Amino acid sequence: MSAPALPLILPDWPAPPAVRACVTTRLGGVSAAPFDSFNPATHVGDDARAVAANRALLRAHLPAEPLWLEQVHGVEVLDADRERCGTGDASIAHCAGSVCAVMTADCLPVLFCNRQGTVVAAAHAGWRGLAMGVLTRTVQRMGGSPGDILAWLGPAIGPDAFEVGPEVRAVFLERLPGAAAAFRPGTGDRLYADIYLLARLELARAGVQAVYGGGLCTVSQAALFHSYRRDGRCGRMASLVWLARDASALGAEPSYQG
């Protein structure tokens, strides 16, 4: 029996056949406003029964329960092959069927695989974690040559919506060469930041050149995505990646590609 229909974004990247990846939207679930309708997050105030039902809908498309992280805007990378829960902002997996996952609602989710199809990873990159090097740490934990790694940038707050204070720019200018290009004047002393470009710069410094995605704005696409910056109380999207146990398809046709 096929899994129930659930709108999913499938990354548009040249991942090897063994790699599976998807991102949920705010559509297709059972949560009431302001978490409507698909919300997999237990920490945002949504009804626990609705979250459980939403996770069950997602689980029907996955080989196993994901490693759900307690995300803290840091750089800790967990091993999804060995751990079932934990505090961190990224996870890696070498074993087929281990599902790496991060949850976001404006922060940048980044999915990884290598060209050999032997390791995958998912990272949660808010500006703090990005500045501290969560993407570099994830690449290091994956092992092998960074030149063999592919990265996909998922839905996040876009450069026309991500207004930050001058202290954010100062942090990146100190830590990331070329970061000045990711900022432009905003209102007063504030600036607009391009989190996609900042991620690309960090990945390039880590040796990753094959970077895809980065064009889906959570703030401007209200019908499709939750956004904390736009709405305050809201649900989350889940970005997931794993190695398949067999050559079967994901279990549903993609609603979107990005």
Automatic annotation (TrEMBL):
Annotated InterPro entries? Cu_polyphenol_OxRdtase, Cu_polyphenol_OxRdtase_sf, Cytotoxic_necrot_fac-like_cat
What GO annotations for molecular function exist for this entry?
Answer: copper ion binding; hydrolase activity; S-methyl-5-thioadenosine phosphorylase activity
Query: What keyword terms does UniProt attach to this protein?
Result: Hydrolase, Metal-binding, Transferase, Zinc
Among its keywords, does the record have Hydrolase?
yes
Question: Which CDD domains does the record match to this protein?
Answer: YfiH
Give the catalytic activity.
adenosine + H2O + H(+) = inosine + NH4(+); S-methyl-5'-thioadenosine + phosphate = 5-(methylsulfanyl)-alpha-D-ribose 1-phosphate + adenine; adenosine + phosphate = alpha-D-ribose 1-phosphate + adenine; inosine + phosphate = alpha-D-ribose 1-phosphate + hypoxanthine
Q: Which Pfam families match?
A: Cu-oxidase_4
Q: What family is it from?
A: Belongs to the purine nucleoside phosphorylase YfiH/LACC1 family.
User: What is the name of this protein?
Assistant: Purine nucleoside phosphorylase
Q: Which organism is it from?
A: Methyloversatilis universalis (strain ATCC BAA-1314 / DSM 25237 / JCM 13912 / CCUG 52030 / FAM5)
> Taxonomic classification, please?
Bacteria, Pseudomonadati, Pseudomonadota, Betaproteobacteria, Nitrosomonadales
